[in-house]
Write a structure and sequence with these properties.
There is one protein chain. This protein has 439 residues and is α/β, with parallel strands linked by helices. It is 37% helix and 15% strand. Strands 13-12-11-14-15 form a 5-stranded parallel beta sheet, sandwiched between helices. Helix 5 packs across helix 8.
Length: 439
């Protein structure tokens, strides 16, 4: 199928807008032909990985300060350079009509000592990020770019490499977004175009499976487990509709829910009746279609997921993390209040991950200082899965995000405990996790 191009797109493809845009658009056209898209759409925002995206699993011995490791840090970014024809000597090659911000990476932005990384590894990653900034990327280094001003409105076409961000954009903001790989998203950000297909098309943005809520949804943890409960019941390309009598979720609960849902399924849109702009009523969410399946989520289902997530036997913990997705200043302030008058036990490492923008706000407000006086450490730009070596040497790990707990099981051999933010804080103070069963 031949893709229809506008005059401007044809100029780009002819090389009139530079070699980088020519090569990038040619890749996007190839992708459109594979997908069966008849035309392209201009994108206003792009969220992509620019720093080193190496995983802790890539370095099981934990040794980072060696030539082959440092070279590995460049692989992903340089591959994208070669794919797009992006000349490192040229600046501002990304589309000037597209707001480009970067995803998380493998080091903390402001330091390296606490994360058990050599300075050479940190410097290597910062050099990659500087190259991205020189080409026009705004360095936000976050898995939750909507917390950093990257906030599309209803109907905007955007691209992102973050699965939970795809869900947030489609489901809460009403933006039009499909999940994308690293190189295709990179190309889209350079030429400012992406194939028009999938969830860009209104006929594809309706519910397919209905989930009736017959459980308590008062806490962030309950929304976290709801994501897993729904995700494991979905078929590919499904769009769940969440309906029932439950309190309106805030941003914190929603970003937690979508992160879990993205891990448990390939879902890219979820319509929450009364919350999603395209689902103000059940009828609106379904768009005249009958459900392909219906389910009821009960407290027993939610509690079973909580119990299954956590290591079954109480024990010592010496690494604990909050922040998945990256915490907002609101969440940091809440934890600072909870930790008031408490101290992290000696020998225990307790960190909270946020992004650069929220860190600056919390620092200016005194929240960072209050947290760090307790012995906690506020980090940016990653998490236990991305910030290499941050949990190395731990004998027990405590987390409050289902995504991190599930995903860490392939990278950690020590007990992994899951609980609420408050339970993580309590364990950091005691150095011990007391398992509480719900069943």
């Amino acid at each position: 199928m031949r893709v229809r191009l506008t005059e401007e797109e044809q100029r780009m493809l002819n090389g009139e807008r530079g070699e980088a845009k020519r090569i990038a658009l040619s890749k996007i056209v190839e992708l459109a032909e594979i997908l069966g898209a008849e035309e392209l759409v201009p994108i206003t925002k792009a969220h992509l990985c620019c720093g080193s995206t190496a995983s802790p699993a890539d370095f099981p011995d934990g040794v980072l300060d060696r030539p082959e490791t440092l070279a590995k840090g460049y692989d992903d970014y340089q591959t994208k350079h070669k794919c797009t024809g992006l000349d490192p000597k040229e600046f501002h090659q990304f589309c000037t009509d597209t707001y480009v911000i970067d995803d998380v990476h493998c080091t903390d932005t402001f330091g390296w000592e606490w994360t058990q990384q050599p300075k050479s590894f940190y410097d290597n990653n910062m050099e990659i990020l500087k190259a991205a900034a020189d080409h026009g990327v705004v360095i936000g280094s976050t898995c939750a770019p909507y917390l950093a001003g990257w906030l599309p409105t209803m109907g905007e076409y955007v691209v992102t490499t973050e699965s939970s961000n795809v869900l947030y954009c489609n489901s809460v903001l009403g933006a039009k977004c499909n999940g994308g790989g690293g190189i295709t998203t990179f190309c889209a950000a350079i030429c400012g175009r992406t194939p028009k297909w999938g969830l860009h098309l209104p006929e594809n943005r309706h519910g397919t499976h209905v989930f009736h809520i017959d459980c308590h949804l008062d806490t962030k943890q309950q929304w976290d487990m709801l994501g897993f409960a729904i995700g494991e019941r979905l078929v590919p390309n499904a769009i769940p509709v969440v309906t029932g009598d439950f309190p309106t979720p805030d941003l914190v609960k929603l970003k937690t829910f979508f992160t879990a849902l993205a891990v448990a399924s390939g879902c890219e849109m979820c319509l929450i009746v009364g919350v999603s702009p395209e689902a103000q009523t059940y009828e609106m969410a379904m768009g005249g279609h009958e459900p392909q399946g219906e389910f009821t989520i009960t407290d027993d289902i939610i509690n079973a997921h909580i119990d299954d997530m956590c290591h079954p036997v109480s024990g010592p913990v010496d690494f604990l993390q909050l922040g998945c997705p990256n915490m907002s200043a609101e969440e940091l302030a809440r934890i600072a209040r909870y930790m008031e008058g408490k101290k992290v036990k000696e020998g225990v490492r307790f960190c909270l991950f946020t992004n650069i923008a929220q860190y600056a706000m919390a620092k200016q407000s005194g929240i960072i200082d209050r947290l760090e006086r307790t012995g906690a450490k506020v980090l940016t730009s990653g998490c236990i899965l991305r910030t290499i070596n941050v949990a190395r040497g731990a004998v027990g790990i405590g987390l409050s995000a289902g995504k991190l707990t599930i995903s860490s099981k392939s990278e950690q051999t020590v007990p992994l405990y899951y609980g609420t933010d408050e339970e993580v804080c309590d364990a950091a103070v005691k150095g011990y996790w007391e398992v509480k069963r719900h069943a």
